[in-house]
Amino acid sequence: MSYYIFEHTKKKSKCAVMGCHGVGAAIAHALCACKEIDALVLLDRDTALASGLAADLCCALPLDSGLDLWAADSADLADCSVIVLAQGYTNTFENAHADLIELNLPIVRQAALDISALAPDAIVIVVSEPCEIMTYSALQYAGFSPSRVIGVGTLAQTHYYRKLLGRYLGIDPQQLNAMILGQVGKHGTLCKDSMQVGGMTLAQFQSMIGRGADRTMPDSLFSDTVQAFEQAEGGIGCAAFAVAQAVSQLVDAILCDTHTVLPVCTASCAAPKSADCCISLPCRIDRKGAHALYDFPLSKAEHDSLARTAARLHAQICDLHALLYNYHAT
Fold it and tell me: 239: domain range?
Protein backbone atom coordinates (compact mmCIF):
# COMPACT_ATOMS: atom_id res chain seq x y z
CA MET A 1 0.00 0.00 0.00
CA SER A 2 1.30 3.46 -0.88
CA TYR A 3 2.15 5.65 2.08
CA TYR A 4 2.12 8.91 0.17
CA ILE A 5 0.24 9.68 -3.03
CA PHE A 6 0.26 12.89 -5.03
CA GLU A 7 -1.56 13.69 -8.26
CA HIS A 8 1.14 14.25 -10.86
CA THR A 9 0.84 16.69 -13.74
CA LYS A 10 3.75 15.08 -15.61
CA LYS A 11 4.87 11.47 -15.57
CA LYS A 12 8.57 11.19 -14.90
CA SER A 13 10.32 7.98 -13.77
CA LYS A 14 9.80 5.11 -11.38
CA CYS A 15 12.89 3.87 -9.55
CA ALA A 16 13.58 1.16 -7.00
CA VAL A 17 16.13 0.53 -4.26
CA MET A 18 16.72 -3.13 -3.42
CA GLY A 19 18.23 -3.37 0.04
CA CYS A 20 17.28 -1.03 2.90
CA HIS A 21 20.15 -1.50 5.35
CA GLY A 22 22.87 1.13 5.73
CA VAL A 23 23.87 2.28 2.27
CA GLY A 24 20.48 1.35 0.79
CA ALA A 25 18.69 3.58 3.28
CA ALA A 26 21.11 6.44 2.55
CA ILE A 27 20.54 5.98 -1.20
CA ALA A 28 16.76 6.01 -0.77
CA HIS A 29 17.00 9.24 1.21
CA ALA A 30 19.22 10.84 -1.46
CA LEU A 31 16.87 9.80 -4.28
CA CYS A 32 13.93 11.46 -2.53
CA ALA A 33 15.45 14.77 -3.64
CA CYS A 34 15.72 13.75 -7.30
CA LYS A 35 13.22 15.87 -9.24
CA GLU A 36 13.13 13.39 -12.13
CA ILE A 37 11.68 10.61 -9.95
CA ASP A 38 7.97 10.56 -9.21
CA ALA A 39 7.77 7.01 -7.80
CA LEU A 40 10.29 5.29 -5.54
CA VAL A 41 9.91 1.65 -4.50
CA LEU A 42 11.82 0.13 -1.56
CA LEU A 43 12.46 -3.60 -1.31
CA ASP A 44 14.20 -5.72 1.29
CA ARG A 45 14.07 -9.32 2.43
CA ASP A 46 13.17 -7.83 5.81
CA THR A 47 9.78 -6.42 4.84
CA ALA A 48 9.36 -4.67 8.20
CA LEU A 49 12.60 -2.79 7.60
CA ALA A 50 11.51 -1.67 4.13
CA SER A 51 8.09 -0.58 5.44
CA GLY A 52 9.65 1.31 8.33
CA LEU A 53 12.12 3.10 6.08
CA ALA A 54 9.34 4.03 3.64
CA ALA A 55 7.20 5.43 6.45
CA ASP A 56 10.12 7.42 7.88
CA LEU A 57 11.08 8.88 4.50
CA CYS A 58 7.47 9.78 3.73
CA CYS A 59 7.27 11.70 7.00
CA ALA A 60 10.40 13.64 5.99
CA LEU A 61 9.31 14.59 2.47
CA PRO A 62 8.98 18.34 1.80
CA LEU A 63 5.45 19.72 1.68
CA ASP A 64 5.71 20.38 -2.06
CA SER A 65 7.06 16.92 -2.89
CA GLY A 66 5.21 14.98 -5.56
CA LEU A 67 6.99 11.71 -4.80
CA ASP A 68 4.99 8.50 -4.48
CA LEU A 69 7.00 6.29 -2.11
CA TRP A 70 6.20 2.84 -0.79
CA ALA A 71 7.62 -0.49 0.38
CA ALA A 72 6.79 -3.36 -1.92
CA ASP A 73 7.75 -6.80 -3.17
CA SER A 74 9.55 -7.72 -6.35
CA ALA A 75 6.38 -7.46 -8.47
CA ASP A 76 6.61 -3.68 -8.14
CA LEU A 77 9.90 -3.67 -10.05
CA ALA A 78 7.79 -3.61 -13.20
CA ASP A 79 8.08 -0.38 -15.21
CA CYS A 80 11.11 0.86 -13.23
CA SER A 81 13.51 3.02 -15.22
CA VAL A 82 16.40 2.60 -12.77
CA ILE A 83 16.93 -0.06 -10.10
CA VAL A 84 19.65 0.32 -7.47
CA LEU A 85 20.94 -3.04 -6.24
CA ALA A 86 22.25 -2.47 -2.71
CA GLN A 87 21.46 -5.85 -1.15
CA GLY A 88 23.98 -7.96 0.68
CA TYR A 89 26.63 -7.80 3.34
CA THR A 90 29.13 -4.98 3.63
CA ASN A 91 32.91 -4.91 3.88
CA THR A 92 33.40 -5.09 7.63
CA PHE A 93 36.36 -6.66 9.38
CA GLU A 94 34.23 -9.77 9.94
CA ASN A 95 33.62 -10.12 6.20
CA ALA A 96 36.83 -10.48 4.21
CA HIS A 97 36.83 -9.82 0.46
CA ALA A 98 36.61 -13.51 -0.44
CA ASP A 99 33.86 -14.08 2.10
CA LEU A 100 31.83 -11.20 0.68
CA ILE A 101 31.83 -12.80 -2.74
CA GLU A 102 30.39 -16.07 -1.44
CA LEU A 103 27.94 -14.29 0.87
CA ASN A 104 26.63 -11.81 -1.70
CA LEU A 105 26.69 -13.86 -4.89
CA PRO A 106 23.40 -15.75 -4.23
CA ILE A 107 21.73 -12.51 -3.12
CA VAL A 108 22.81 -10.64 -6.25
CA ARG A 109 21.93 -13.64 -8.41
CA GLN A 110 18.32 -13.71 -7.21
CA ALA A 111 17.97 -9.93 -7.48
CA ALA A 112 19.33 -9.95 -11.05
CA LEU A 113 16.96 -12.77 -12.05
CA ASP A 114 14.00 -10.86 -10.58
CA ILE A 115 15.02 -7.69 -12.40
CA SER A 116 15.45 -9.56 -15.70
CA ALA A 117 12.00 -11.12 -15.42
CA LEU A 118 10.08 -8.11 -14.10
CA ALA A 119 11.92 -5.03 -15.40
CA PRO A 120 13.61 -6.07 -18.64
CA ASP A 121 14.05 -2.47 -19.80
CA ALA A 122 15.54 -1.08 -16.56
CA ILE A 123 19.04 0.24 -15.99
CA VAL A 124 20.67 -1.44 -12.99
CA ILE A 125 23.09 0.37 -10.68
CA VAL A 126 25.10 -2.08 -8.57
CA VAL A 127 26.28 -1.05 -5.12
CA SER A 128 26.61 -4.51 -3.52
CA GLU A 129 30.17 -5.40 -2.51
CA PRO A 130 32.71 -6.10 -3.82
CA CYS A 131 31.41 -3.79 -6.51
CA GLU A 132 33.46 -5.02 -9.48
CA ILE A 133 32.63 -8.70 -8.89
CA MET A 134 28.96 -8.10 -8.09
CA THR A 135 28.55 -5.88 -11.17
CA TYR A 136 29.95 -8.70 -13.29
CA SER A 137 27.65 -11.23 -11.59
CA ALA A 138 24.56 -9.05 -12.03
CA LEU A 139 25.44 -8.61 -15.70
CA GLN A 140 25.73 -12.37 -16.21
CA TYR A 141 22.45 -13.23 -14.48
CA ALA A 142 20.34 -10.35 -15.78
CA GLY A 143 21.47 -10.93 -19.36
CA PHE A 144 21.28 -7.22 -20.14
CA SER A 145 23.57 -5.29 -22.45
CA PRO A 146 26.69 -4.05 -20.59
CA SER A 147 25.54 -0.44 -20.89
CA ARG A 148 22.53 -1.17 -18.66
CA VAL A 149 24.38 -2.78 -15.73
CA ILE A 150 26.52 -0.13 -14.04
CA GLY A 151 28.55 -0.44 -10.85
CA VAL A 152 28.95 2.72 -8.79
CA GLY A 153 32.66 1.88 -8.86
CA THR A 154 35.15 4.67 -8.14
CA LEU A 155 32.62 7.50 -8.58
CA ALA A 156 32.34 8.25 -4.85
CA GLN A 157 36.12 8.21 -4.38
CA THR A 158 36.59 10.48 -7.38
CA HIS A 159 34.07 12.94 -5.94
CA TYR A 160 35.91 13.14 -2.61
CA TYR A 161 39.31 13.35 -4.29
CA ARG A 162 38.15 16.36 -6.30
CA LYS A 163 37.01 17.99 -3.05
CA LEU A 164 40.42 17.49 -1.47
CA LEU A 165 42.23 18.72 -4.56
CA GLY A 166 39.99 21.77 -4.79
CA ARG A 167 40.65 22.58 -1.14
CA TYR A 168 44.40 22.22 -1.64
CA LEU A 169 44.42 24.47 -4.71
CA GLY A 170 41.87 26.93 -3.33
CA ILE A 171 39.51 26.48 -6.27
CA ASP A 172 35.95 25.28 -6.86
CA PRO A 173 36.14 21.46 -7.27
CA GLN A 174 33.67 21.72 -10.15
CA GLN A 175 36.47 23.38 -12.15
CA LEU A 176 38.64 20.29 -11.75
CA ASN A 177 38.89 17.34 -14.10
CA ALA A 178 40.32 14.43 -12.13
CA MET A 179 39.39 10.75 -12.07
CA ILE A 180 40.18 7.58 -10.16
CA LEU A 181 39.72 4.52 -12.39
CA GLY A 182 40.11 0.76 -12.07
CA GLN A 183 39.13 -0.70 -8.73
CA VAL A 184 37.64 0.77 -5.57
CA GLY A 185 40.17 1.31 -2.79
CA LYS A 186 43.94 1.36 -2.65
CA HIS A 187 44.28 -0.46 -5.98
CA GLY A 188 42.58 2.38 -7.85
CA THR A 189 44.42 4.17 -10.66
CA LEU A 190 44.74 7.92 -10.20
CA CYS A 191 44.86 9.57 -13.64
CA LYS A 192 47.38 12.30 -12.89
CA ASP A 193 48.46 13.10 -16.44
CA SER A 194 44.92 13.97 -17.56
CA MET A 195 44.13 16.26 -14.60
CA GLN A 196 42.99 19.73 -15.61
CA VAL A 197 42.10 22.90 -13.71
CA GLY A 198 39.96 25.34 -15.67
CA GLY A 199 41.38 24.03 -18.96
CA MET A 200 44.98 24.11 -17.77
CA THR A 201 47.15 21.20 -16.73
CA LEU A 202 47.66 20.79 -13.00
CA ALA A 203 51.32 21.83 -13.32
CA GLN A 204 50.38 24.96 -15.29
CA PHE A 205 47.83 26.02 -12.70
CA GLN A 206 50.19 25.42 -9.78
CA SER A 207 52.82 27.53 -11.52
CA MET A 208 50.29 30.28 -12.22
CA ILE A 209 49.32 30.57 -8.53
CA GLY A 210 52.98 30.53 -7.49
CA ARG A 211 53.02 27.15 -5.79
CA GLY A 212 55.25 25.27 -8.18
CA ALA A 213 54.59 21.72 -9.28
CA ASP A 214 54.34 19.40 -6.26
CA ARG A 215 54.69 15.94 -7.77
CA THR A 216 53.89 14.17 -4.50
CA MET A 217 50.66 16.04 -3.80
CA PRO A 218 48.30 14.07 -6.12
CA ASP A 219 49.37 10.72 -4.66
CA SER A 220 49.20 12.09 -1.12
CA LEU A 221 45.61 13.24 -1.64
CA PHE A 222 44.78 9.85 -3.16
CA SER A 223 46.09 8.16 0.00
CA ASP A 224 43.96 10.53 2.09
CA THR A 225 40.92 9.61 -0.01
CA VAL A 226 41.47 5.88 0.43
CA GLN A 227 42.05 6.32 4.16
CA ALA A 228 38.80 8.29 4.58
CA PHE A 229 36.77 5.51 2.94
CA GLU A 230 38.56 2.82 4.94
CA GLN A 231 37.81 4.74 8.14
CA ALA A 232 34.12 4.89 7.22
CA GLU A 233 34.04 1.17 6.43
CA GLY A 234 35.86 0.31 9.63
CA GLY A 235 33.52 2.42 11.73
CA ILE A 236 30.07 1.88 10.24
CA GLY A 237 30.61 -0.90 7.68
CA CYS A 238 30.38 1.25 4.54
CA ALA A 239 30.73 4.81 3.27
CA ALA A 240 26.94 5.01 3.08
CA PHE A 241 26.37 8.71 2.47
CA ALA A 242 29.31 9.09 0.09
CA VAL A 243 28.03 6.20 -2.02
CA ALA A 244 24.48 7.58 -1.82
CA GLN A 245 25.64 10.92 -3.19
CA ALA A 246 27.41 9.14 -6.05
CA VAL A 247 24.33 7.05 -6.88
CA SER A 248 22.15 10.16 -6.82
CA GLN A 249 24.53 11.88 -9.27
CA LEU A 250 24.46 8.83 -11.53
CA VAL A 251 20.65 8.52 -11.45
CA ASP A 252 20.30 12.23 -12.29
CA ALA A 253 22.68 11.82 -15.25
CA ILE A 254 20.66 8.85 -16.54
CA LEU A 255 17.17 10.29 -16.13
CA CYS A 256 18.14 13.78 -17.37
CA ASP A 257 20.04 12.27 -20.33
CA THR A 258 22.97 14.59 -19.62
CA HIS A 259 25.74 12.69 -21.47
CA THR A 260 27.98 13.45 -18.48
CA VAL A 261 31.33 11.62 -18.32
CA LEU A 262 31.69 9.79 -15.00
CA PRO A 263 34.01 7.02 -13.74
CA VAL A 264 31.75 4.02 -13.15
CA CYS A 265 32.16 0.26 -13.21
CA THR A 266 31.31 -1.36 -16.53
CA ALA A 267 32.14 -4.45 -18.56
CA SER A 268 35.60 -3.96 -19.99
CA CYS A 269 37.52 -5.29 -22.95
CA ALA A 270 40.18 -2.66 -22.34
CA ALA A 271 43.70 -3.49 -21.27
CA PRO A 272 44.31 -6.33 -21.49
CA LYS A 273 41.78 -6.74 -24.31
CA SER A 274 41.17 -10.37 -23.40
CA ALA A 275 40.17 -9.55 -19.82
CA ASP A 276 36.64 -10.58 -18.91
CA CYS A 277 35.73 -8.36 -15.97
CA CYS A 278 34.03 -5.19 -14.85
CA ILE A 279 36.22 -2.21 -14.05
CA SER A 280 35.79 1.53 -13.47
CA LEU A 281 36.34 3.49 -16.67
CA PRO A 282 35.30 6.93 -17.92
CA CYS A 283 31.77 6.48 -19.28
CA ARG A 284 29.32 8.73 -21.05
CA ILE A 285 26.07 8.51 -19.11
CA ASP A 286 22.73 8.96 -20.84
CA ARG A 287 19.19 7.62 -20.78
CA LYS A 288 20.40 4.34 -22.30
CA GLY A 289 23.05 3.70 -19.65
CA ALA A 290 26.85 3.90 -19.52
CA HIS A 291 29.09 3.86 -22.58
CA ALA A 292 32.78 3.34 -21.91
CA LEU A 293 35.25 5.78 -23.49
CA TYR A 294 38.11 3.41 -24.31
CA ASP A 295 40.14 6.14 -26.00
CA PHE A 296 40.42 8.22 -22.82
CA PRO A 297 43.99 9.60 -22.72
CA LEU A 298 46.18 7.66 -20.30
CA SER A 299 49.91 7.59 -19.71
CA LYS A 300 51.72 4.28 -20.12
CA ALA A 301 51.97 3.92 -16.33
CA GLU A 302 48.23 4.51 -15.93
CA HIS A 303 47.42 2.11 -18.77
CA ASP A 304 49.66 -0.54 -17.22
CA SER A 305 48.03 0.00 -13.81
CA LEU A 306 44.58 -0.55 -15.33
CA ALA A 307 45.88 -3.64 -17.11
CA ARG A 308 47.10 -5.09 -13.82
CA THR A 309 43.76 -4.33 -12.20
CA ALA A 310 41.87 -5.95 -15.07
CA ALA A 311 44.10 -9.03 -14.88
CA ARG A 312 43.63 -9.26 -11.10
CA LEU A 313 39.83 -8.97 -11.41
CA HIS A 314 39.80 -11.43 -14.30
CA ALA A 315 41.61 -13.97 -12.09
CA GLN A 316 38.93 -13.51 -9.41
CA ILE A 317 36.25 -13.96 -12.08
CA CYS A 318 37.86 -17.25 -13.12
CA ASP A 319 37.63 -18.42 -9.51
CA LEU A 320 34.05 -17.22 -9.45
CA HIS A 321 32.97 -19.27 -12.46
CA ALA A 322 32.75 -22.43 -10.33
CA LEU A 323 30.33 -20.67 -8.00
CA LEU A 324 28.39 -19.27 -10.95
CA TYR A 325 28.10 -22.76 -12.41
CA ASN A 326 26.88 -24.19 -9.11
CA TYR A 327 24.20 -21.52 -8.80
CA HIS A 328 23.13 -22.01 -12.41
CA ALA A 329 22.69 -25.69 -11.66
CA THR A 330 20.40 -25.11 -8.65
Answer: 155-317
